[in-house]
Structure formats: C-alpha cells, structure tokens
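The step that takes the researchers longest sounds almost clerical: writing a folded protein down as plain text. The outcome of that step, for a single protein, is printed below.
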Amino acid sequence: MTASSSSDTALALHLALFSHVACRPELEIDLGQAALLIAEPEYDDLDVAVYLRTLDRLADQVRPRLLSSGEPTVKAAALLGFLSEEEGFRGNTAEYDDPRNSFLNEVLERRLGIPISLAVLAMEVARRCDFTLHGVSFPGHFLLRVDGGSYTAGRGEDPSSAVLFDPMTGRRLAGDDLQALLARALGRRRTVTSDDLQVATKNAILIRMLTNLRNIYNRQGDESRQQLAHERIRALQNAAQKPPPRPGRPPRVVH
C-alpha cells in the first residue's frame, strides 16, 4: 500500500468514526467526545477517554459549590469563575488563529482556547454536574446562555431575562456589551435581536468549530486540512437535514 492510499484510508476511517459519533439525533450527541474527535486526525496517539476523564475530574472538583448555589445564574458564574480563576482557562488573544485553540484536547492541556472551545468545555463540565449551560452562535463571538425568560435585546440586563456570559472571560454580559460585540463583528452598528441569542444545537456548534478551522486552513493555504474540515461540515449538514426517525410499527400479535 502506498503512503497516499494509506493516508486516504486513515482519513476515511476518521470520517466514518466522526460521523458515527457526531451525526446523530441531537439528544444522542456527546458534544465533548465529538469535539475531541475533531482533533483526532492531528494526533496519532489521541486517547479521547483520557480527556473525557479530565472533564469528569473538573466536574468532580466544582460540583460541591454548584450544589450549594441556588439560581442558575449563580451556578454559571461559579462554574466559569472556577474554570478561569482557579483552573486558569483563558482566551488565547495573542494567537487567536492557532488551530490548537479549536482542539479540545489542546484546550485542556494548554488552558488556552477561543470562545467556542472554551464554551464547549464549560458546557460539558456543567452537564456532568446536572446543570445546563447553552451555547449561543452570536455573530463573531460564541457565547454561553442561562435561561431565565426572554432577553430584552439592546436594553442592558433584565433580571427576568436569559443571561449571557462570555466564555473567554467568564463575565456576565449586559445589553451594551452585546451591542459592542456585534458592532465589532459586523463593522457597523445594529440592534441585537432575539435571533442572535438563539440556543445553538450541538450540530451547529460542531459545524461552527469546523468552519473556524476551515477558514484558518484556507488562510494558511493548507488545502488537505481545509478539505477534511469541509467533508466533516458536509456530513454534519446532511445529518441535520435528515428527518427524525419514525416510531416503529408495533409487532403484529398473532393469537
């Protein structure tokens, strides 16, 4: 077997494994495992189970303080404070386009990431603590959301609203913060809408992570990695378009 055919076989196996884990109905997707598999072609010895256990350990450490916290917003602030202040996870603003910022194994090793990878980290630790943090595909800067009603876009914080957090800093965001983030992303001002704050599905989160990588590889002129990212995006998009399976017809009972 030539080196080229061997490489093609390895990539085909990766796509099959990634699709098996990530291209499932929403409730069946293990986001942490799927995010780790994004990195699998880059690391011959990547042991996904090791990093899943790291997420387990982080959850074990923070769980007692979340149990003593009451409201979801207090839990979210406690969790994000634990990750940023005690564990040292932070945004890699100096080398934002480093592909390692998008690989969850590297985020766990280096304590560096970008908004979406840090958000996935927080969501997965929260899930292990029976607490839900939602991802939000906000333009230009992925966010975390704790539900508590409808967010009043552009009017600052409303105590009854959904609350947004920046996964890069762990900071709770007011309406003015969101307006500033949106203006920076678009290069112009417009009002934040409810569509900007919709909860992202796991499928959409994985597509955004891979789109970030595809864009990085495009800028670097790395065609093979760009193509692999594209193939995984296409698999996820196809999975999202599939109708949910119909319930099976009950077996006929013969008396």
About this structure: The first strand starts at residue 90 and ends at 91. Confidence is low (pLDDT under 50) at residues 149-160, 248-255. The beta strands are 90-91, 112-113, 134-136, 143-146, 163-165, 172-173. The chain is about 55% helix and 5% strand.
